Amino acid sequence: MTAGRAGRLYSPELLALATGLAAFPLVHDLPLRAHERSRTCGSTIELGLELDGEGRIARLGMRVSACAVGQASAALFARSAIGRSADEIARTSARVEGWLRSGGDLPDWPGLGVLEPARALTSRHEALMLPWKAALSVLSKPGGSG
After folding, report:
1. Fold of 3-140
2. What is the pLDDT of residues 87-126, one digit of tens each?
């Protein structure tokens, strides 16, 4: 990766997001859990969720071992996931995945534009998708809302 590309990818906004994960610690009392690992880079996420009575995300926490792109994606996910249903998460996940593959309009998720420079780097796609895949895994298990 050239210095210019790295500079655009690792913007101050993206790096600030990566440090924002401290606001979403993985605590022991989150009942629904999933662990996902990127095959391309080895990044990992452990996600814990608690759902409300309507099956929407009420609380979440995560432990992320990933590049700054994976960390920023996890932070963006965490900042806007509360109150979302399994269907909303699944639809947005599919849109993010499609956007990574083919471009087009940026999916409707607050702050996602910060990750736009990573779209051109397929080696970062799996790390970027980790929080979405972990959430879908949790929400599709018995006891989840999927």
Report:
1. Sufe protein. Chain: A (3.90.1010)
2. 999 999 999 999 999 988 889 999 999 999 999 889 999 9
Q: What is the pTM (predicted TM-score) of this model?
A: 0.90
The pair of structure tokens assigned to 62 is 């995560």
Please state, in angstroms and rounded to a whole number, the distance separating the CA atoms of residues 122 and 61.
Answer: 27
pLDDT in tens, 30-61: 999 999 999 988 999 999 999 999 999 999 99
Query: In angstroms, rounded to a whole number, what is the distance separating the alpha carbons of residues 38 and 56?
Result: 26
Q: How far apart are CA 6 and CA 68, in angstroms?
A: 11
Q: At residue 89, what is the residue type?
A: I
Could you give the count of Cα atoms lying within 13 Å of 73 in the half-sphere of its Cβ? 32
Nearest to 31 by CA among 145, 143, 146: 143
Domain ranges of the chain: 3-140
* Residue 138 burial (CB count, 10 A): 27
Q: What are phi and psi of 33, to 5 degrees?
A: -130, 150
Question: Which tens digits make up the pLDDT trace of 109-118?
Answer: 999 999 999 9
